[in-house]
Amino acid sequence: MSILSEPHFHNEAAAIARLEAIIWPEGPVCAHCGGVDRITPVRGGRIGLRRCGDCKKQFTCKVGTVFESSHVPVHKWFQAAHLLASSKKGISAHQLHRTLKVTYKTAWFMAHRLREAMRDGTLSPMGGSGKVVEADETYIGKIELAPKGRKKPGSGFKNIVMTLVERGGSARSFHIDATTLNEVTKIVRENVHHETIINTDEGVWYKQVGGHFLSHDTVNHSRYEYVRDDITTNTVEGYYSIFKRGMKGVYQHCSEKHLHRYLAEFDFRYSNRVALGVNDTARTARALKGISGKRLTYRA
C-alpha cells in the first residue's frame, strides 16, 4: 500500500489529530497563555477547536505556527510536507500546484512556509573532539540590480553560498556577501566547535581559520589534488552536487531575497537523510514539528 494512502493525507480529522500529536506530544498547550490544565474541545466548533479555561480564548494547533490564517486543509499541508521532505532535489511550486489541485500562488506560499518550518535555529556548534568539518563555497544565480543609491554589483554577479558539512552529520549553509577573511572566519568560528578538524581547499579566505581549531588541513584543487590521506572536501562537494541539481534542474530560478529559505530546505533534507536513520515519514514529522513559533511576514 502506498504511504500516501495513510488517513492523514486525505481525512481532515485524522490530519489534525496527527498534527496535534507532532506539535503537542504531551497534550494540548494554549497558544495564547501557555496553559495546559484546563483545555477543553469546543462543542459544535470546527475540527480541532479548543478553549483554554485560564485565558478563556479559543485556538487550534495551527495558531502560533506558519499554518496560522491558512485556509488550506491540514491534510493538504501533510501532502505538501511529505512531497517536499521526501524529494531529494526539491519539488517546484508548479508541481505542487498541479498535484495538490491548488492555485500556483497557494502552492508557492505553502512551499515557503514549509521551508521556514525546516529552518534550524539551533546555535549549537558543529563537530567536536576529533570530528571533521569541511568548508567550501559555491556561486548560484545572479545578484539583482540594486535600488538607486545602493552600492552593489549589477546582475552579472552571482550569489555566494558558504556551507559547513560535518562528516557523517549535518550541513549548515549561509548566503554571504563576499569571501573575505573576516566574514568567512567569523562564520566558521561561530558554528564549529574549537576541537574540530577543519578541511578546506586552498582559498586564501581560509588562511586564518586554523588557529582557532584542532587543525586546519587543505587540498589544492588548482593542482588537481582532491584527496590526500583523510584530507578532502569531497563531502561538502557532494552536498553542492545535490544543491545545484535541485536549484538548476527543479527550481531553475531563485531570487536573492529568498535564497536563504532554499538553503534551509537543502540543509534540512541533508541533515535528516536516510544515512542518519531518518526515513521520509520521520523527516516529514520533523519538518512539521518546526512550524511552531514561526510566522512569515514578507510578500512575493
Question: Can you summarize this structure?
Answer:
By secondary structure, this protein is of the alpha+beta class. 33% of the residues lie in helices and 14% in strands. The chain has a domain of 123 residues: 2-Layer Sandwich (Nucleotidyltransferase, domain 5).
Description:
- The protein has 300 residues and is an alpha+beta fold.
- The chain has a domain at 132-254: Ribonuclease H-like superfamily/Ribonuclease H (Nucleotidyltransferase, domain 5, 2-Layer Sandwich).
- The protein has helices at 12-23, 74-86, 93-100, 104-118, 181-191, 234-251, 259-271, 280-289, and strands at 39-41, 50-52, 58-59, 132-140, 159-166, 171-176, 197-200, 215-218, 227-228, 231-232.
- The strands form three sheets. A five-stranded mixed sheet has the order 6-5-4-7-8, sandwiched between helices.
- The model has no long low-confidence stretch (mean pLDDT 90).
Secondary-structure blueprint:
Layout: H1 12-23, E1 39-41, E2 50-52, E3 58-59, H2 74-86, H3 93-100, H4 104-118, E4 132-140, E5 159-166, E6 171-176, H5 181-191, E7 197-200, E8 215-218, E9 227-228, E10 231-232, H6 234-251, H7 259-271, H8 280-289
Parallel strand pairs: 4-7, 7-8
Antiparallel strand pairs: 1-2, 2-3, 4-5, 5-6, 9-10
